Amino acid sequence: MSDREYTPALFNDAPSKTAEATSSFEEINECQYISKNLGDSGQKETMTCDCPEEWDEEAARNLACGEDSNCINRLTSVECNNRTCACGKDCQNQRFQKRQYAPVKVIQTEKKGYGLVAEHDIPEHLFVYEYTGEVIDEAAFRQRMIDYDRRLLRHFYFMMLTKDAFIDATEKGSLARFCNHSCSPNAYVDKWVVGDKLRMGIFAKRTIATGEEITFDYNVDRYGAQLQPCYCESPNCLGWMGGKTQTDAALLLPDGISEALGVTRQQEKAWLKQNKLTRANQQSPDAVVNEEFVRSLTVAPLVDSDVTKAMSALMKVEEHSIVAKLIERLFITDDPKTNALIVKLHGYKTLSKVLKEHGATDDDLTFKVLLVLKRWPSMTRNKIELSQIEAEVNTIYKELKHPETKELAAGLIEEWSKLEMAYRIPKNNENGNNEVKRSMSPLFGRNPRSELPAQPIAADESGVNLNDDEELPEGWQKALDTNTNTVYYYHTGLGISKWEKPTMAIPKGPKVSTPKAPKAPSKQKKNERPRPQKRQDEKDLTRLQEQRLQQMKEEQFKEVREKEKLLQELIIQSQKDVEEKKRLAEKLKQERIEKHKERKRKREAAAAHSKSKSSNPVEQVSPEVAWTKTLAKYIPNMIKKHEAEIGHENIKGCARELVKIIAAKEARKQDGKPPRELDNAKLAKLKAFSNSFMEKFLDKYRSKRVKHNGGEQ
């Protein structure tokens, strides 16, 4: 049966166990980092999109950067930021920051412990929940695996964020930790750049029905201390999950990576099957992907539909073999239109990151990256400055010894040095300093872009003609925003700007036609009389313009005050919600205390009742029961040496069986109670019988293991 024909179970009637489940760990909204550098995205500067603001008056929200938009940030798994992006405040690409989670609840499953189910239908690719926890380094990760294993924790909650950073949601996390494993999952895990950090979210792989359990593939995304049986019950269930094992499923490429490389899951599985016997010697013990499979790929040039997948993967992937193949796809892509799209989707910033992380260790990859940069069209210096790629190329020129690579790097540096900076609108830096070095732009920010169509741009050889005869009101000037290639207007005196062309504050009035007079000296003196009136008209015009601009300032100030008022109301409501949550938590705590007291009262009453019966004659204990109690002190220690091979549970089962057999035999042989302590002769007989019993059990156990291992494909 295929995945499409498989109908998952629905748990619409299952009671919610969310409150009970969240009492077992500390719920946190964002990851907590044991070191501030862990989980860094590797981007030195915030990535911005060029979407216009799209305000919906009825819904009272900004619709920019939505699911169906062409937002370059959303396409490359980067969230927008109110402080830096031009798309307006609170756009639709801030799901991690706003915690826009799908409606879910925790339930109790039959075999898997808790599980997470959808309370409403969840559309394909919708953000379900962020996977939060403590972000730890590799040393702490390995130590905690050992510690949790010693504590016999049944469930594990590790997720790899980067090569040297792991999310541990065991003691601190979110509801996402209750997503169970499935060999046919309906969700997947994806990493997004939010600010300067990588964050991990769970997204719907297909439409998830109301009441359906939300699952993803642990073998691809999650780490546990030991291999565990799988209870997903899907048609293609592998039988096992967890453990960093070199199984076929554990080494399959994540969906986003395989799509970026242009290969299908069927191709990879076919390669695994054909190379099952030889790949063990070729594969690195710590590898998390099929390195040999990736190296064997013959990749194809990128087409427009592949660019978003490739650039998104290249920004996040760390495995060198995958980075090399993705760079090869860029290298063999000659189409100018596709290359322009690559540049638009943060091309310079992405290749700057690649050079920083892999340039010093792979000369061939570095050479290909430089050739790709050489091929890209040079327009202005803005993208070079923002991406800081020139510093990486300078490092390559100084440190690498390969003559062709050095020559190529020198050529790029010289070419970029001749580029000019275009007019651009400065952004506030992280320290709050509004100064922008070497910037010729006015030092103020744009107002949100209106819904009016952008002004067309008249291009000349340099790109845009800003020196036309377009008439503007006094004090207004225009410039070019290079991010959107659109003209905007600004007023230097007021420190404001706008996208639409400003209208005249008041009409200058009709021209007064003065009848021509003869050129007699006396007539000329009379004609000089209107000049003071013209100066007076100019003063009135200036005064009215100032009044209009002052009114605009007051309206903007009023708008800011309204937003502050709304924010204050939201803060008050949030405080009320927090207080209500604390009240409910306290109520739940008191209920647990009362239940504990009630159980204690019942135990004390039962103990008192038992004590009152102590004067009654004690029931005669049978010899078999007496022998069972005596033998239970000796038998487990005699066979404990086999625990490492067959496990704790099997040892317990064997001990119970041995005690039962020997107690029955001894009870039949002699009357009365057994001695409290057994002599050496008796102990020797018990040991001999136990060894004989365990030899037979081990023979059966090992033969089953051999048969089971030999039958795996």
From TrEMBL:
All residue ranges annotated as the Post-SET domain in the record: 226-242
Keywords: Chromosome, Methyltransferase, Nucleus, Repressor, S-adenosyl-L-methionine, Transcription, Transcription regulation, Transferase
Ranges annotated as biased composition (Basic and acidic residues): 525-540
GO molecular function, one term: histone H3K36 trimethyltransferase activity
Keyword field contains Nucleus: yes
GO cellular component, one term: nucleus
Segments forming domain SET: 102-219
Region span, Disordered: 505-540, 590-621
Domain WW: 470-504
EC number: 2.1.1.359
Enzymatic class: transferase
Transmembrane region(s): none
Main location: nucleus
Record keyword Amino-acid biosynthesis present: no
Stored InterPro entries: AWS_dom, Post-SET_dom, Set2_fungi, SET2_Histone-Lys_MeTrsfase, SET_dom, SET_dom_sf, SETD2/Set2_SET, SRI
CDD domains in UniProt: SET_SETD2, WW
Annotated PROSITE patterns: AWS, POST_SET, SAM_MT43_SET2_1, SET, WW_DOMAIN_2
SUPFAM superfamilies on file: Conserved domain common to transcription factors TFIIS, elongin A, CRSP70, SET domain, WW domain
Compositionally biased residues, Low complexity: 510-521
Catalytic activity, as annotated: L-lysyl(36)-[histone H3] + 3 S-adenosyl-L-methionine = N(6),N(6),N(6)-trimethyl-L-lysyl(36)-[histone H3] + 3 S-adenosyl-L-homocysteine + 3 H(+)
Name of the protein in question: Histone-lysine N-methyltransferase, H3 lysine-36 specific
